[in-house]
């Protein structure tokens, strides 16, 4: 029963983290602007958001008197820095200067499947064939939905160089998530993201100061910047890393399938976009794949013979 409760709590924490992350894409778009109307530079947004989270993290670690990580923790923390603090936000910010948010959603919709594959590779977590079929079905639903939205908005879809940036962002985020989850049982979810942000400070803080914008920037861009620094880079990971750790990274990663739909819900008050029946239908189908994937995520072999997942 305790294992079931832990898995359920992990799934809900994953959903909470995804809810915070869901607003990242529109807020990043607000912060960077477009090629026609640029605001904050992608490098400033990347380094600045990590620096803001790093200052908050340093305060948190000092107030809670957190112990230093052990020597075997530094490598996964360093990988999380490269993936979550630098790689993902930088590649995403540059891509959003070139392609639309709908176009970006088509590529980043593959994040849950890639994260699950990274969990199986890095953490040696196993699942039955049914889980992988559900993961691929859910990813396919999200991709089809994103294609329909892009087509409906007249944006079209065609692979270009910015898609390589988005693919790189997906892999960077996935590896960062998994390596962060690897040390969460030992350090705690809150301390993992805090140490990740603090480790990045020697680069992010000077970079933020050097790249501070000299031109006038819209207030909405600063709002987007503060959001991605406080919530996308910091608070959201408190829930996300803990959910991955106690619920199983391979299973909880599938809650990311909900992210495009939560982004649409967030865009309603922010951008005035309507919610249509097609969106609701696809959301319901994706939720069904997440639930089915959770039920099929148990190892095929008996628990007594299965290798430890973390």
Any overview of this molecule?
- By secondary structure, the protein is an all-alpha fold.
- Helix content is 76%, strand content 0%.
- The protein is globular, with a radius of gyration of 19 Å.
List keywords for this structure.
globular; single chain; disordered C terminus; 310 residues; mainly alpha
Which strand-content bin applies to the residues?
A: under 5%
SSE arrangement, N to C: HHHHHHHHHHHHH
Largest beta sheet, briefly? none
Q: Give the overall shape, derived from the CA principal axes.
A: globular
Structural class: mainly alpha
Number of strands: 0
Give a topology summary.
Elements: H1 2-22, H2 24-32, H3 42-63, H4 74-98, H5 101-108, H6 111-122, H7 129-152, H8 161-187, H9 189-210, H10 219-247, H11 249-252, H12 259-271, H13 277-295
Helix pairs in contact: 1-10, 1-12, 2-4, 2-10, 3-4, 3-9, 3-10, 4-8, 4-9, 5-7, 6-7, 6-8, 7-13, 8-9, 8-10, 9-10
């Amino acid at each position: 029963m305790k294992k079931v409760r832990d898995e359920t709590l992990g799934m809900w924490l994953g959903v909470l983290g995804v809810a915070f992350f869901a607003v990242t894409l529109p807020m990043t778009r607000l912060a960077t602007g477009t090629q026609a109307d640029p605001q904050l530079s992608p490098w400033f947004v990347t380094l600045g958001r990590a620096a803001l989270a790093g200052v908050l993290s340093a305060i948190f670690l000092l107030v809670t008197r957190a112990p230093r990580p052990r020597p075997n923790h530094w490598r996964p923390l360093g990988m999380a820095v490269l993936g979550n603090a630098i790689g993902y936000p930088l590649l995403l910010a540059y891509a959003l200067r070139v392609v639309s948010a709908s176009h970006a959603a088509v590529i980043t919709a593959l994040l849950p499947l890639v994260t699950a594959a990274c969990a199986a590779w890095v953490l040696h977590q196993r699942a039955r064939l049914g889980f992988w079929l559900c993961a691929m079905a859910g990813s396919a639903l999200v991709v089809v939905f994103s294609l329909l939205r892009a087509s409906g908005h007249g944006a079209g879809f065609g692979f270009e160089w910015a898609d390589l940036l988005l693919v790189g962002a997906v892999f960077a985020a996935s590896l960062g998530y998994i390596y962060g989850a690897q040390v969460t049982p030992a350090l705690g979810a809150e301390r993992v993201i805090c140490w990740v942000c603090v480790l990045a400070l020697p680069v992010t803080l000077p970079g933020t100061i050097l790249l501070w914008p000299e031109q006038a920037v819209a207030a909405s861009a600063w709002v987007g910047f503060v959001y991605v620094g406080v919530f996308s880079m910091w608070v959201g990971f408190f829930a996300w890393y803990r959910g991955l750790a106690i619920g199983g990274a391979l299973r909880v990663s599938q809650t990311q399938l909900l992210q495009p739909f939560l982004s649409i819900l967030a865009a309603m008050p922010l951008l005035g976009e309507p919610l249509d029946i097609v969106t609701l239908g696809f959301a319901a189908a994706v939720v069904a794949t997440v639930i089915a994937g959770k039920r099929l995520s148990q190892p095929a072999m008996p628990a007594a013979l299965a290798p430890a997942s973390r």
